[in-house]
Amino acid sequence: MAQLIYYLQFPFVRYAIIVGVAVALCSSLLGVTLVLKRFSFIGDGLSHVAFGAIAIASVLNISNNMLLVLPITIISAILLLRTGQNTKIKGDAAIAMISVGALAFGYLIMNIFSASSNLSGDVCTTLFGSTSILTLKPLDVWLSVGLSVVVIALFILFYNKIFAVTFDENFMKATGSRAQAYNLLIAVIIAVIIVLAMNLVGSLLISALVIFPALSAMRLFRSFKSVTIFSAVFSVVCALLGIVISILAGTPVGSTIVAADVVAFGICSLIGLILKRQ
Amino acid sequence: MSFIEANNLSVGYEGEAVAENICFAIGRGDYLCIVGENGSGKTTLMKTLLRLQKPLSGEIRYGEEGQIKEIGYLPQQTVVQKDFPASVKEIVISGFQKKCGLRPFYNKEEKHLAEVNMERMGISELQNRCYRDLSGGQQQRVLLARALCAAGDILLLDEPVSGLDPKVTADMYDLIEGLNKEGITIIMVSHDIGAAIRYASHILHIGETVFFGTKEEYLESPEGKYFLEKMTHGDGDVVSFL
Predict the structure, then answer these.
(1) Which residues of B touch A221 (CB under 8 A)?
(2) Domain map of chain B by residue range?
(3) Tens digit of each residue's pLDDT (9 = 90 or more) over A69-124
(4) Number of other CB atoms surrounding residue B119 within 10 Å
(5) Which of residues 159-218 of B touch A (CB under 8 A)?
(6) Domain A2-271 has CATH 1.10.3470.10
(7) CB of A221 within 8 Å of any CB in chain B?
(8) CATH number for domain B1-71+154-168+184-242, candidates 3.30.1030.10, 3.30.1330.10, 3.40.50.150, 3.40.50.300
(9) Which residues of A touch B157 (CB under 8 A)?
(10) Which residue from A42, A63, B168, B181 lies 20 to 30 Å from B80 (Cα-Cα)?
(11) Chain B: residue whose CA lies nearest to A224
(12) For the segment B12-42, what is each residue's pLDDT rounded down to a tens digit?
């Protein structure tokens, strides 16, 4: 405990905790929608797109790579979620294609043009987000917190519409609501969340932040509202635990958070089973 | 002036027509049943009627002046919904989404009407239960209550009894008949020609040839006779359906 308080005196530790909680909260909110829409892997796909974009940004020597990464990821998200029903390449195949393609091109570009001597180190950092959360500058923190607030506000304002479009898109269209517009909104929010979360856990582990809270909540709760609230709490608690453990034990932040998510999911599944038996 | 009217409607995908030359006109409070064999374009026609896709040609008009934009819709269940964590209340009230427009939350009146519609469907005591834990018949009632929230005048039902057992099927048809008697115009797509003849006032038969007319006219038409003969294995016992 004393050790933890000692570490908390460093601003970079406080930044990591603030950004970690904000990102975990945001990513859990849309998790329920994504899991139910069978888009569990969109986090993975989009984060690889973001990885490709980061590679391009670093080759072009763009100082703030957010400016390039965010728009590219948003456009990919829109393209992926649009493929919903009436396209030749279905959702999961489209995600796999974009994800693997972007990863390959990203690595290729980095390999051909990179000036860095430690290439595999750079790639590893982007994929697993090993230390970047501990090297955040105040500007990054404000940007992350600001975007998180926007995401949460949008989610609360459009909560009922997100529910309706997740449960039954065709019904919404048939009764005259603009389901496409809400799908677009969901896509944009997801892209923002993923770019945010890349700082925290890196691109390989983002799916975990999106999926585990939702799946755990669905083991225990039976209404959309309670599932959403529980997955938000679950995600924040696991992120906090993960960050604290990683600081104390010196483990990589991203993988520790995901490990906490996995363990908590196991506990929730067990409780769910026991409740069902009774 | 007819309440719902389709003129020379052709429906299909990517420019290729699945069903052509569909014309029908029904009045307020009628009960239209759309029948046809698998692959005859029933589902495509349904989607076009719901404006989920554009007709290849022709037009559809709802309301005497074409003024009605809201249609209540009872869809076939999707795989996603089978394990969806949502309470009955949440689903029923989501029918008001269109009326909400950009307003983020439901108002008092909508909450009250949702209660009323759950009452009408006899599912009030289920309102806090989880949708995925309900039986097939109960789930259909939930979706019907939601459709009533979306529109009070026209209901489109897509195979409302598929997968239900005979007792629940009969209850479901009675429920729909009750709504029709309250003045709601019903359009139902169904395999179940027997039920179509028992409950509907008008029949639209699509396939090789298109027939539209009242139930009595249908029973006299070549399409109707052919279809019935197949249904009754050629013993021609039409009376047992009526």
Answers:
(1) 85
(2) 1-71+154-168+184-242, 77-150
(3) 888 888 888 887 776 555 556 667 778 888 888 888 888 887 887 666 666 666 66
(4) 12
(5) none
(6) yes
(7) yes
(8) 3.40.50.300
(9) none
(10) B168
(11) B86
(12) 887 788 888 888 999 888 999 998 888 788 8
* ipTM surpasses 0.95: no
Q: How many residues does chain B have?
A: 242
A35 touches B84 (CB < 8 A): no
Nearest CA-CA distance, residue A72 and chain B, Å: 28
Q: What is the pTM of this model?
A: 0.84
| pLDDT at res. A195 | 82
CB contact under 8 A, B90 and A227: no
Least CB-CB distance to B151: which of A158, A172, A175?
Answer: A175
Mean pLDDT of B97-106: 84
Cβ–Cβ of B94/A156 closer than 8 Å?
Answer: no
Whether residues B87 and A170 touch (CB distance < 8 A) is answered with no
Q: Please name the residue of chain A whose CA is at the shortest distance from the CA of residue B49.
A: A174
Over residues B132-159, the pLDDT tens digits come to: 889 888 999 999 999 999 877 889 998 8
pLDDT band for position B218 (cuts 50, 70, 90): confident
> B86, B131 in Cβ contact below 8 A?
yes
